[in-house]
Amino acid sequence: MALLIRAGLIAGLVVTGLTYPFAALAGMGVKVGSEALENMPERLTETAPAQSTYVYANDGKTLLTMFYEEHRKHVDLANMSPFMIKAIVAAEDNRFFEHHGVDAKGVARAFVANQKAGGVSQGASTLTMQYVRMALQNSARTPQEALEATEQTAARKLREMRLAIEVEQRLSKEEILERYLNAAYYGHRAYGVYAASQVFFSKSPRDLTLTEAALLAGLVKAPSAYDPATKDRKAATERRNYVIDQMLKMNAITAEQAVSARRSKIKLKLSTPPNDCVSVSSRHNDWGFFCDYFKSWWREQPAFGRNPLEREENLRRGGYRIVTSIDPAIQRYAMKNVLGKERRGSAFAHGQVVVQPGTGRVLSMAVNRRYSLDQSANGRHSDWRQDRDVKGNYPNTVNPLLGGGDMAGYQAGSTFKIFTMLAALEEGMPLSTTFYSPQRYVSRYITAPGPATCGIHWCPKNSSESMTGNQSMWSGFGKSVNTYFVQLEQRVGAEKVVRMAERLGLRWRTAIDKKLATKEHASEWGAFTLGVSDATPVEMANVFATLAAEGKYCEPLPVVSIRNPDGSHALYQKRLIAAPRCHQEVKVNVARAATDAARCVTGYGSARGSCGGWGTSEMVYGTLGRPVAGKSGTTDGNKTAWFSGYTPQLAASAFVADPDNPEHVVGSGRSTMSKYTVAQTLRDALKDKPRENFKPPTDKYVW
Questions:
Q1: Per the count of CB atoms within 10 A, which of 40, 58, 140, 256 is most buried?
Q2: What's the CA gap between 133 and 164, in Å, rounded?
Q3: In the prediction, which pLDDT does 9 show?
Q4: pTM of whole model > 0.85?
C-alpha cells in the first residue's frame, strides 16, 4: 500500500507541473523523484508557532502592553465563528473533507490550466499542504531551511505532498483546520485568526459575521493584494465575494445569505495592538517606566534563556500571560502627587517608587516624564557645556529614571545613614549609644584636599549649629546629624556599613562607586554614610520595605504571576518564577530598633527613647496621620533631595534631581517636595486600609 501511495505521489507530481514547466519535470524522470522521496522526512517536525505575550496590571484585566514578533494567540476551533471555518475551506480547499492530504482532482485540474496558460496559473496545494509549508517555515533552524520551505521547486512540492499525507494520517481534519487557522498570515502583522479578528474588527473570532469571515479567509492567499485597509477596496471586495460564492457552491450558506453578504460594504474597526513598552497607551503612558523596569527584570531571569537577548526573544515569542505588580490606583495617586509638584516640562525629574513590604512587589513607578522616543519637542539640555542643539531628556525620554537598566541613579544623601545605624545595631550598639556631636568633626578618614577636609582628614559638618551636643541614634537619625553618624560609622567600621547596603540590595554602577566598595577601599569610605554613592528609587524604596517587613528582605519584583500558553504557571527549578524571593536579612529586633529611630524623623515619635525635640520631616506624620517612619536625604549644595518613608503596609521613596546634569542644583525650595509626595501617596493608597502599628524593639537594642 505504501509503495502504491509513493508511486502515486511521484506520478502526480510529474503530471501536475506545478512549479516547473512540464517538460522540465519530465526531464527529471521518475528515478530522480524516487531518490528525492527516499531522502525526505517521513514525519512533519512541528514547532509551536510564536505567540504574543500579554502583560497586565495587578488586577489581571488592565492591559499594559504586549510583546511579539508575530502577533498571534492560539484559539480553539470551538471558539471560532462557524462562518470562519466554512470560509477558509471555501477559499483555500473546497475538497478538504474529501481528500487525504493531496487532492488528485485538484492536481489534474491545475496541470490542465497550467498547460493552457503556458506557465503556472493554478496551484494544487491543499489546505493540509499549506499547513505543512507553514510548519516547515516555523521550524526552520537556518536560513537555508527557511528557503527550502518556500522555494518554487518540484522537490518542495513533493515533500509537501508526502508530509501532508502523513499529517492526515495522524491528525483529524478538525485538528488540521485549527492549526492552519492559528498559523496563517492575514496581513498587518496579524498571524492566526485571533490576531486578525482583533486587528481588522477589534473583536473575538467567535463573533465574526459571514462577511467578516469571508474577508479574512480571502486575505490568506495574498494579504497585501487584498488588503481591505487601503483606500481602494475593490480587490478586497471582489476577493471576499469570491469566497462567499464558493461557500454557496459548497452549500455552506444559503442563497439569501450570499446575496445579502455580497451587497454589504466592508466595515472595519481597525486596531493596532501595542508592542513593547513604547506602545503603552497614551492613557497609561506613565506606566512605560514600569514596563521598562519589568523588561529589564525579565532579561535577568535565567528561566527564560541563556542570555539577555535569548530571554527577550522568548518574551516576544513565548505567548505568556503576565500579571505584573503595578497597582493602577496607587500609580494614579503617585502620578497626581508627583505632577502636582513638578511639571513634566521641568529639567528636574521628580519621581517616586512604591514597594510592598514582605513581597518586594513594585506597586508604582511614577515620574514627571512621558515614556516616549520622540524628543523633537524636548527642552534644551541643562548642562551648558553641551552643544546648543543637544536636547534634554524632558519631557520625553525612555531612560530608566526610577531603576533597572544601566543608569546609576542619584546620590541619595542622608538616607544612607540607615545602613550605618543597622550595622551598628547588628554589632550590639543599642539605640541609646551617645556621642558628643560638634558642628564640624575631624574624622580619622584620609581624603583628598577639598571643602570638607582639615589638612589630610575628612571633616564633615552639620547642616545646622543647633545639632551640636550629645546625640543618640534616636535624635541623631531624627535630626540627621552628620557628625554623629560619622562617629558611629567609625565605631562600627565603614566596610560593614557598605556591606549592609549591599545586603539590602544596592548595586554599584559607576566606576568610582565600584572601586570604593571593594574590600581594599571600603574601610576608608567614610563619606559613604552621608550618601555620596548613587542609588535608584527602586533600591531605596526596597531598603525601607525591608524595615517595614521587620528585616525580611525581598528582591524587588515586578510580577504577580506568569502563565504559559497552556495556562500553567511558569516554573524555574520547580519554583514559581513570580513568587516573592525573600529571606530574613537582618534580625527582627534590629529592624524594629531602626524603625523606632526612623519614627523620630517623621514626627510620629519613638516608642522607646527621646527624639530630641524635633525631626527633619515632621510634616510626613502630619500629612499621613498614621504610624510612619522614614528618612530624608539631601546632598551637598542641594543637588538632590530624597525622602523614603514606610508604614507596616507600604514603603515609598521619592527624589528630585536633574538626570542630565548632576551638578544642576535643585535648590532649597524643592527640599520638602519628596517628603510631601511620599506622605500624600501613602495617605491616598492607605485611605481604606486599617491602621497598623509598628512593634517596638526589646530592651537589648534600646539601652
A1: 58
A2: 9
A3: 39
A4: yes
- Cα of 654 vs its chain's centroid, Å: 22
* Angle formed by the axes of helices 173-183 and 82-92, nearest 10°: 90
Q: What is the pLDDT of residues 126-180, one digit of tens each?
A: 999 999 999 998 887 787 877 777 777 777 888 889 999 999 999 999 999 999 9
pLDDT tens for residues 198-234? 999 999 999 999 999 999 999 999 999 999 999 899 9
Dihedral pair phi/psi, residue 22, rounded to 5°: -55, -40
Helix intervals (H) in 51-191: 82-92, 104-117, 127-139, 143-150, 154-170, 173-183
Q: At what angle do helices 210-219 and 234-249 cross, to 10 degrees?
A: 110
Mean pLDDT of the chain: 91
Q: Which residues contact 329 (CB under 8 A, 6 or more apart)?
A: 685
Assess whether pLDDT exceeds 90 at residue 496. Answer: yes
How many Cβ atoms are within 10 Å of 525's Cβ, its own excluded? 22
| Predicted local distance difference test score (pLDDT) of residue 34 | 55
Residue partners of 212: CB distance under 8 A and separation at least 6: 83, 197, 200, 201
- Taking the C-alpha atoms of residue 334 and residue 327, their distance in angstroms, rounded to an integer, is 10
Q: Which residue has the cell 557598605?
A: 498
Q: How far apart are CA 173 and CA 502, in angstroms?
A: 60
For residue 356, is pLDDT > 50? yes
Dist CA 641 CA 633 (whole Å)? 6
User: What is the rounded (10 degree) CA torsion for 219, 225, 229, 231?
Assistant: -150
Residue (of 534, 559, 69) closest to 296 by Cα position: 559
CA distance 546 to 553: 5
In the chain the first and final C-alpha atoms are separated, in Å, by 94
Distance between CA atoms of residues 642 and 412, nearest Å = 6
CA contacts within 13 A on the Cβ side of 452:
20
Burial of 118 from C-beta contacts in 10 A (0-12 / 13-18 / 19+): exposed
Give the H/E segment covering residue 602: helix 588-602
pLDDT band at 115 (very low <50, low <70, confident <90, very high): low
- Quote the CA–CA distance of 557 and 323 in Å, as a whole number: 12
* Cα–Cα distance, 699 to 689 (Å, whole number): 31
Please report, as a single letter, which amino acid is at residue 298. W
Reported as type and span, the H/E element at residue 643 is strand 641-646
In the predicted structure, residue 453 carries a pLDDT above the cut 80: no
**Structural contact between residues 544 and 645, judged by C-beta atoms closer than 8 angstroms:** yes
Distance of alpha carbon 444 from alpha carbon 433, whole angstroms: 20
Calpha distance 49→135 (Å, rounded): 8
Which pLDDT does position 139 carry in this prediction? 83
Question: pLDDT digits over 551-590, tens only?
Answer: 999 999 999 999 999 999 999 999 999 999 999 999 999 9
Task: Report the distance separating Cα 286 and Cα 371, nearest Å.
Answer: 6
DSSP, res 302: G
What does the angle CA 189 – CA 194 – CA 200 come to, to the nearest 5 degrees? 60
Distance CA 468, CA 479 (A): 11
State the DSSP H helix or E strand holding residue 352, giving kind and residue range, or none if neither: strand 349-355
d(CA 102, CA 424): 80
Report yes or no: 331 and 289 within 8 Å, Cβ to Cβ.
no
